[in-house]
Design brief:
alpha+beta; 3-stranded antiparallel β-sheet; 4 helices; 24% strand; binds 2-amino-4-trifluoromethylsulfanyl-butyric acid
């Protein structure tokens, strides 16, 4: 979600029935990413991957949340290499050595589940591999901050500490978000934030953590032609992983983490 400058927060606590619905939708979003894995090979176009994802989501009695969202026309966002997020699927052909993010948000019985991950195309450079692995670690480190009565911003605080330790930068122009009953709900989840600030986490909250970590500078620029594709300002690589997270009585449940592989 795009970061807003100022907005009062109203974080919805989900009911057990809503949680069950969001759990099912989140599982389907995760299954969609798993289904795509077999097709990620040099030579495939990002628009072809988008079509495969859309077919899979529809076969499973759901719809892609992005299609028709603020004029967006596709079932997924596909963001290769220097694309930070919101990459519009098109005739770009994936090449040996590329890294690419695919982001899927499903609507199943009215409930939203949101997840994304990186894929590597063929063999990638050691540099690219390390950026991907560190970004995955950043998501895990953020998840470890998810327990009742912890400050929301401790998620971003710990993510940024880890990224900076590896001399990467953290994207601040896009953030995680409440999710479940709508695509983007309160709160905004910053991936770089001040320790012990922000609202306290409570059981029944559901939001995404989706750190975007850049090899170079943090700044992004949105493609002027398609109005969506956000790239790094310096052309360096960017990586992202995203899970939909439920705060429980004792900690968290990652609703999109049904395979435990990121
Ligand atoms: N799924 C993205 C997120 O994690 C949002 C994509 S909105 C779109 O928040 F319109 F660009 F598809
Ligand atoms: Co999201
Ligand atoms: Co997403």
């Amino acid at each position: 979600a795009k970061q807003s400058i100022f907005a009062p927060m109203a974080i919805v606590i989900k009911t057990p029935e809503q949680i069950e619905g969001i759990r099912k939708s989140s599982a389907l979003a995760a299954k969609t990413l798993k289904h795509l894995e077999q097709f990620i090979k040099p030579g495939i176009k990002t628009i072809e991957l988008d079509q495969i994802a859309e077919d899979f989501i529809k076969e499973n009695h759901a719809t892609p949340a992005t299609k028709g969202y603020r004029g967006y026309k596709h079932a997924t966002c596909i963001s290769p290499n220097d694309v930070v997020c919101h990459g519009v699927p098109n005739n770009t052909v994936l090449q040996h050595g590329d890294i690419v993010n695919i982001d899927v948000t499903t609507i199943l019985n009215g409930y939203f589940g949101d997840t994304c991950r990186m894929y590597t195309v063929g063999e990638v450079s050691e540099y690219a591999e390390k950026l991907v692995q560190t970004t995955k670690e950043c998501l895990r480190i953020g998840m470890e901050q998810c327990f009742p009565e912890n400050h929301l911003n401790n998620i971003g605080h710990h993510i940024a500490q880890h990224a900076h330790k590896h001399r990467y930068s953290v994207v601040y122009e896009f953030c995680g978000h409440g999710v479940g009953l709508k695509f983007h709900e309160d709160p905004e989840v910053s991936h770089i934030a001040e320790k012990n600030t922000g609202p306290l986490l409570k059981p029944g909250m559901i939001f995404t953590i989706e750190p975007m970590i850049n090899g170079g500078k943090a700044r992004c620029k949105v493609d002027r032609k398609d109005g969506w594709t956000a790239r790094t300002i310096d052309g360096r690589l960017s990586a992202q992983f995203e899970h939909t997270i439920l705060i429980t009585d004792t900690g968290y449940e990652a609703l999109t983490d049904i395979y435990g592989d990121f």
